[in-house]
Each structure stands twice: as C-alpha cells, then as structure tokens.
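In this section we turn from sequence analysis to structure. A common task in structural bioinformatics is to predict how a protein folds when a small molecule is present, because the ligand can shape the pocket around it. The inputs are simple: the amino acid sequence and a SMILES string for the ligand, here pyridoxal-5'-phosphate. Study the lines below before reading on.
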Amino acid sequence: MPTAIDVFAKVRGHERAEQLRAAREADLLPYFRRLEGPAGPIVEMEGAERIMLGSNNYLGLTADPRVQDAARAALDKYGTGLTGSRLLNGTLDLHLELEAELAEWMGTEEAIVFSTGHQANVGTLGTILGVGDTVIVDSADHASILDGCLISKAKLRPFKHNRLDRLEKMLSRAVDDGGGILVVVDGVFSMEGDIAPLPQIVELCKAYGARLMVDEAHGAGVLGARGAGASELLGVEADVDLRMGTFSKSLASCGGFIAGSHEVIDFLRVSSRAFLFTASGVPAAVGAALAALRIIRSDEGPALLQRVLDNGEYLSNGLDALGFRVVRGEPAVTPIVPVLVEDDWKAVLLWRALYDAGVYVNVAIHPAVQPGGALLRTSVMATHDRDVLDRALNAFENVKQKFESEHGTLPGPAA
Ligand SMILES: Cc1ncc(COP(=O)(O)O)c(C=O)c1O
C-alpha cells in the first residue's frame, strides 16, 4: 500500500533552518530573548540591565499603579480566568464598560472586544468578507490582516506600500470583480512607523464605492488629540467604516477591539468565529485595559501622548545626527523609529553589538520587511527620560564606529 510522505518533513529542511542554526550557535538570534522584569524604559534582560527600545508599551502604562491595581481588583473579583467564550460564560461587566468606552473614544456607535488584536482582525475580516468579495490591502499591512483575508476566501488584491496609484489600479480592477470591496490599511505601519495617507485613501474608496477598515494598533493611544489614532490625526474618523485596535500596545494589556456601526458590530457578535469560539480574555487583562483607557481619556492623556511623540522626535533626530538612515513617519513622527540597515546579517550583527552595549532593539528582516530592507526597529515610551535616550544614542554612536570598520558602512541619512 502506498504511504504518505512525512507531513513533518518541512520542519527539517525549511529555508530558514540553516540561518537559524548558525544564529543560535553564535548566540546571534535577536528573537525570544528573556526578559527578567517589567517592560519599562530600562529592563533586566539575560543578566544585565538594558535600555528598552523594543517595546510597544508606548505610554509606559504597564507600570502605572492604577492600571496594576485595576488588574488586581479584576483578578480578586473574578478569578484568574473565565474558562469560556464571551457568548456563553465569558462576558463581564468590565467587558461591557470597556466596549462602551472604546466606542465613545473612537466616536463610533459600538465596539466589540476580542481576546487579542490578532483575533480581532481575523475574526472581523474572516466574517465580513466572503467568496465573491474583494479585499485590497497595503503590502506592509500586519500579518493578522492577511490571515483574516485568507480565511475569508475573498479575492485578495495587494498594492505596493502607500502607493496611491497602485491602490487606485486595484480598486478599478476590483469593481470588475463584481462583489463588495473592502480596503484595509494599517494607520501606523508596525515596522516602518509611517502613517497611511488616509485622506487620499478615503477619497479613492468613496469614488469606487469601497468600504475602509483601518488597523489602529500603533495609532490608538499615540496619535490625535484624543489619542484615537491616525484616523483622528488626519481628520477622517467619520469616513472610516471600521477601526481596529489592540490592548497590547498603549493600552498596556492584552486583547483587541473593532469599532464601527451598530449593524456591523452586532453581526460580528453573533457570527465571528474568532470571537465566539475562543476563551474570553482573562479578567486582569480586561481590567487593566479599561484603566489604561481611562487614563488616556483623562486630563492626563494629552501630556502623555505628547511625551511619547516628543521622545520619538528626539530619538529620530539623534540617530539622524549620528549618521544613521532613519525612516521618518510622515506627516508626523511616531514612537516607532526604524533604522535602515538593508542587509539581513548586518542587521543581526548590529543588533548584537547594541545588545552588548546595553540597548535592546527589535530586528525586522525579510519577510517582515521587503528583501534588502532589513531594519532595526526602535521604539520609545512616554516614560523614557532624556538621560536614558542620550545613553542609548551614545551606545549607537560608539557601536557605529566599530561596526563600520569591521563590516562596512551602514546606509547614511537620506538626502
Ligand atoms: C498592526 C498590528 N495589528 C494587529 C496586531 C495584533 O495585535 P495583538 O498583539 O493584540 O494580537 C499587531 C500586534 O502585533 C499589530 O502590530
């Protein structure tokens, strides 16, 4: 009888296996590094103190005593977990308050809370789209958006990152596809830190009758006077049909949400499999997110938002002055300050040199970015003080000289 090939064969010879082995052997793997304390501006990591420039804790609220107390209070009141889905036995008064306040914050009729942001994207796109529809995505959109699109079986039409001419071409083709059209973009792109040209995207969507969804994972709790994201900053909130956000960045917790019209959110509540068939977020996570949201929406919010953006500007200018090629977010700098390295291995080696110099950053190599577009993704918090950022810049300066003498020049500032 013929037998099947081993389905596990692919785990042995995959294209990254050799690179992974070599990186591990040389202790050059920039991923899965062990954190030994809270994700503050300075962290304990693998036996040493390091300046944290690789966290999405943009407002530093994971360390705020009010957020921690709220998590504790939820734990004390509801226990460690809900052991069930939102549908059956996983909905708390905390979820309902959070959903109401998120909708108010986003200025939408309603909001729905998922256990993670990834599930929010998958559970929305996989539900709202179907066979016959077309979904148009920016090539730099987050992986969870792509996953949702693939699950939905809608026709996927990607366009080159932030290229409006390519978006328009895809829209004109999508009209001929014959189904509904949804355009999905990140408000702030997670690796590049740049902002989608939302006003122009809105105009194009309107012209072609397409709906628009914006992933505000890195925009909510960062941009706009209320901190409601790129859509607020660029004045298009009323024109964006669906806004996604996560609690795993400025909201200092874990979970995600979709904000939009009553009819769509209500449909998701009874149809979204990633909402219905998974356990509700743990009470402490929901309590923490609600407390963080209340801080952002309080009188303290604007100063916190300003501080993280000022820190982004400071780091961006500092790295530029040191001769690094910094990708600048337009029309505003965001807390994400990417340093272009181009070559994957050089990025890993530069990461290691910085790590040894006491600075932790993230490394983005292909396929997280385009081939030849490797970068060090640095990010700031509102709670980094200038002295700490200066120490980090100093480490970048010292490392650059030695690195370039050993491994060749790095890309310089854009002309
Ligand atoms: C742009 C974007 N969308 C969605 C997500 C998923 O969010 P979560 O971490 O809550 O699953 C992330 C986080 O990595 C993200 O960066």
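The chain has two domains: 16-62+301-407, 65-297. As an exercise, try to locate the residues that line the pyridoxal-5'-phosphate site and compare them with your own expectations.
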